[in-house]
Write a structure and sequence with these properties.
heterodimer; A: alpha/beta; FAD/NAD(P)-binding domain; Guanine Nucleotide Dissociation Inhibitor, domain 2; 19 strands; about 20% strand; globular; B: alpha+beta; Gyrase A, domain 2; Elongation Factor Tu (Ef-tu), domain 3; 8 helices; binds flavin-adenine dinucleotide
């Protein structure tokens, strides 16, 4: 609740997981913190919702793959009710001929995998992990500034530089080379197996507007694999859906004294010339705070809440040119009973299933989105969480959650009902190619396009990372130069969401780093 | 729109008249327009403005229009001056900065009517203006080619206008705007200019340009009217202390090398910066500069002797502290004036510095170490410039 008698030290706009992480650390530092969340549920895109009567599903993010363990333990999330229904899941790359490839840590089974590929995969994993470890050193701290770095920044850079040196000559030149090429070429260099190449490629671009041949995909892959450094040996299914992450974090924050108000949409960040003074809610309530921290994405924050008219042109231009058009849709299916995926056991259906049979399949799917069309044969990341968590659906029934690439935010002609229905049916048909009885079992289905995601979660463009993860929008360039250390051109206004370094996914580091930065700058920040 | 694809160099709406007046055929390219550098002799043209009336075709000057409910707020964010203080039918000199507080350009802003403004600029900057428009309800367009304009400057200029039938023009205050019917349409007259003298600028639709020129020159015949070119104007503006973008500072967007641009404070234009208004471009950086100090100071120098200190290095004792950006012998003020940028600690009025001047006579170069004194401001600043009603010379 909002206590207008409290002079809040910090008002956080948005109760996404990063906002809650930030709130907790700030409260721990002794600040009075208020979190204002527009939605009636907490956690932002880490959410669970009942999409049809008695069927619930993670309504945006569906795998926990990279929640930072230090944050989880600092916040005591386990004691606040966070439980895994399953963890360290395998990824099964579905094959048209039902000879599926199972990826389980370093082990590969099925899909006609060769011994050479098996060996190459172990070496590849080893190298990727090395790179991830190096990057991880820069992830849990603010990114250095583009110019005029101070000592802390130089240390971060030095650490990255030193880390690269420590990689050894071969790995170092590999990293520098790989970072700039694309996952397609890297896959071609390493492997023969199409399913393997497709599955890895999919991981490199989920949530982005990129195809396997797009630059930045190698960085995207390393980003995704950051979970390995954090101790994940595969995706986890959260009990109660991803909303439970938000709930546990909210509990942790409340335990530290944070006030949380749901259903409180901020319509404006109040600014006195160049200093944030608080916020105005949609109902007109004004809440003052010494600092305002926005968990909303950078475009929403500046376009809608601050107003481009209230910042200088250079910053407004950077906000405007930031790339963050989502290309991933979510499909939720309520099922009468488990469908039969050809060649999979029930236990296997609880694993992570991907439809990305070849890299060219993904690239072709991507092609459409470049021209404002949805993929005719989309790539997919499928979860059937009810295999592990019966609470999501009535007895014996199931829910399926699918991340679908590509569904461009700016669809030619717009995402009207007709286009949505057509795309939904097309996606279902495509899954049915692998699970022929699927359609007989469907109770109801819901498609969330990037436009729906934008409306529901207030994420501009419905973008996974609140802004594309690409070399021009990472580290000191994230979200854009001049705002890369969580502080902004407006004094007293900070950013803590996925749009900031290191980026998105349910990871918590953006919120953590923002809190640290605010704490470091002292009370008067 | 400007038909750049059809012609290499454009002609202003007064071109036929300029061509007829231009006895020595000395032309230059001003923002894509053929523009006279001099019509007869630079000295004659200079003295026309100081003693009679000189007419300078300013049609090529870049002109932007801003219309819409947020036009005022938009300009207040774009420019360093407080636009809310500029009433309708008033004009103000201003600069605008980038986010780093570096001057992008200087110019004049005309408050033409409710939610309606015109900005005259040295350089084209539509992209910056459009970027700046994000978040504002304002329509912006380049109207350079849609408006013919003349600067009519000098002590007899008011009398010439009266001869043309512009009754009451003498009551127009400096930086004021008024309008008169002309040939079934209208001419807008502002009491503005780049010469530091009594003078006006007129703004009219291109179709009426030639008729206006003809009537103006007929009315001014007995008042010594003559067309003047950019060379004379340069002397005039120097004498009265006006900076020239591209000469006295590098517009921030054009500066390639780090540190070559300047802030308003560094150009002696701090008085154009208003911190008592909402956020504007450069505010943060300028506040910081105000607190921490500037890198450079802009100074007017009275240079000993009569050799213009063009491109001279400036010394304080043996230490090189700056360079001259503009220099000229000013005939009316009878002084040898220079504009210089020096290290910030050397700008105090009254300070003695030395200019290292090189000049050539019949292939013999001479180096001259001329004493100079930092002076307050413009050396030419006659009461008639401000006097209202304007005197009848
Ligand atoms: C289709 C899709 C699938 C994904 N799948 C996964 C996955 O499987 N695993 C994974 O780790 N990540 C996944 N992600 C990414 C992940 O969901 C996000 O990166 C992450 O949730 C962002 O967290 P956040 O706290 O930074 O922002 P958000 O979760 O977006 O939180 C921001 C909060 O601010 C609130 N807000 C915004 N404006 C206002 C306002 N004006 N007033 C009040 N509140 C406001 C919003 O309502 C929201 O609650 C997926 C993303 C998408 C789009």
């Amino acid at each position: 609740m909002i206590n207008l008698d409290k002079n809040y030290d910090v008002i956080i706009v948005g109760g996404g997981h990063n906002g809650l992480v930030c709130a907790s650390y700030l409260a721990k530092d002794g600040r009075s913190v208020l979190v204002l969340e527009a939605n009636n549920s907490i956690g932002g895109a880490s959410a669970t919702s009942e999409f049809v009567d008695q069927f619930s599903v993670s309504s945006c993010a569906h795998w926990l793959i990279q929640l930072n363990p230090d944050i989880a333990s600092d916040m005591g999330l386990n004691s606040q009710g966070l439980e895994m229904a399953a963890r360290d899941l395998k990824t099964i790359a579905l094959a048209e001929d039902a000879d599926h490839l199972t990826i389980d840590g370093d082990n590969l089974e099925g899909g006609g995998i060769s011994d050479e590929d098996r060996k190459a995969y172990i070496a590849f994993n080893k190298q990727m992990l090395k790179f991830c470890k190096l990057l991880a050193g820069a992830f849990n701290r603010r990114a250095p500034k583009l110019v005029e770095g101070n000592l802390t920044d130089r240390l971060t850079l030095a650490k990255l530089g030193l880390g690269m040196k420590m990689l050894g000559k071969d790995d170092m030149s590999d990293l520098m080379r790989l970072a700039l090429i694309n996952i397609y070429d890297v896959m071609e260099e390493n492997f023969d197996n199409e399913l393997l190449k497709g599955a890895i490629s999919l991981d490199s671009l989920l949530g982005s507007h990129m195809g396997p041949r797009s630059p930045n995909t190698v960085y995207g892959y390393l980003y995704r694999r950051m979970g390995d450094v954090f101790g994940y040996k595969g995706p986890a299914v959260v009990k109660g859906g991803m909303g439970a992450v938000g709930e546990a974090m909210a509990n942790a924050a409340r335990a530290k004294g944070v006030d949380i108000q749901l259903g409180a949409a901020v319509s404006k960040i109040n600014i006195d010339v160049d200093r944030a003074t608080g916020v105005t809610l949609a109902d007109g309530t004004v809440v003052n705070g010494a600092l305002v921290v926005s968990n909303a994405d950078p475009k929403t924050t500046f376009n809608k809440l601050v107003g481009l008219a209230n910042i200088e042109t250079g910053v407004a231009r950077r906000v405007k040119t930031m790339r963050m058009k989502g290309d991933a849709a979510k499909l939720h299916i309520a099922l009468d009973s488990l469908p039969n995926f050809t060649g999979l056991t029930e236990q296997q259906m609880g694993q992570r299933l991907v439809i990305a049979p070849t890299m060219n399949y993904i690239e072709t799917a991507f092609n459409a989105s470049k021209y404002g069309e949805y993929s005719k044969a989309p790539a997919m990341d499928i979860s059937i969480p009810s295999v592990h968590d019966a609470s999501l659906a009535p007895d014996g029934k199931h829910v399926m959650s699918v991340i679908v690439q590509y569904a461009p935010y700016e669809l030619a002609g717009g995402w009207n009902d007709e286009h949505k229905e057509a795309f939904k049916n097309l996606v279902i048909d495509r899954i049915a190619d692998f699970a022929p009885d699927l359609k007989d079992k469907i109770v109801a289905a819901q498609l969330l396009t990037p436009v729906d995601i934008e409306e529901r979660f207030h994420i501009h463009g419905g973008h996974w990372h609140h802004g594309e993860i690409s070399l021009d929008q990472i580290l000191m360039m994230r979200p854009f130069p001049g705002a890369s250390q969580y502080g902004t051109a407006v004094d007293g206004l900070y950013l803590c969401g996925a749009g900031n370094h290191p980026g998105g996914g349910v990871m918590g580091l953006a919120g953590h780093n923002a809190a640290k930065e605010i704490i470091n700058r002292g009370k008067s920040a | 729109m400007i038909p750049h694809d059809e012609t290499m160099i454009l002609e202003t709406p007064f071109y036929s008249r300029c061509l007829a007046a231009c006895e020595i055929n000395l032309w230059e390219d001003w923002k894509g327009y053929r523009s006279a550098q001099a019509y007869t002799s630079v000295e004659q043209e200079y003295f026309a403005v100081r003693s009679n009336t000189g007419v300078f075709d300013i049609s090529p000057m870049i002109k932007y229009r801003f219309i819409g409910p947020d036009a005022g707020a938009y300009l207040n964010r774009l420019l360093t001056r407080d636009i809310s203080k500029i009433a309708i039918d008033r004009v103000a000199y201003t600069v605008w900065c980038d986010d780093e507080g570096q001057v992008m350009d200087d110019g004049t802003i005309f408050h033409l009517g409710e939610n309606d403004y015109r900005l005259c600029a040295y350089a084209r900057c539509l992209d910056w203006l459009m970027w700046s428009a994000e978040g504002f309800d304002v329509t912006i367009f380049d109207e350079t080619a849609d408006i013919a304009a003349l600067a009519v400057q000098g002590p007899t200029s008011c009398a010439v206008f009266k001869n043309m039938g512009f009754t009451g023009i003498e009551n127009l205050k400096p930086f004021g705007i008024t309008r008169y019917p002309f040939e079934g349409s209208e001419v807008m007259i502002s009491r503005t200019g780049f010469t530091g003298d009594l003078g006006y600028e007129i703004w009219i639709e291109p179709a009426l340009a030639e008729a206006f020129w003809d009537q103006l020159f007929a009315a001014g015949k007995l008042r010594g009217i003559r067309a003047i070119g950019s060379a004379a104007l340069d002397m005039l503006r120097t004498e009265t202390g006006f900076l020239q973008a591209g000469v006295d500072f590098v517009p921030a967007e054009e500066a390639i090398r780090n540190g070559r641009s300047r802030s308003p404070f560094e150009l002696g234009l701090g008085w154009l910066v208003s911190f008592d208004k909402p956020v504007f471009n450069g505010r943060k950086a300028l506040l910081k500069e105000k607190k921490e100090g500037s890198r450079y100071a802009f100074v007017y120098l009275d240079v000993e002797g009569n050799k213009p200190a063009e491109h001279a290095f400036i010394y304080a004792g043996n230490k090189e502290v700056g360079t001259v950006t503009t220099a000229a012998w000013c005939p009316t003020a009878k002084s040898n004036i220079a504009f210089a940028q020096v290290d910030a600690k050397y700008g105090k009025v009254g300070q003695e510095l030395v200019a290292e001047i090189y000049y050539e006579r019949e292939l013999k170069w001479t180096r001259l170490m001329a004493k100079c004194t930092v002076v307050e401001g413009a050396v030419f600043n006659p009461p008639r410039k401000r006097q209202t009603p304007a005197a009848d010379f």
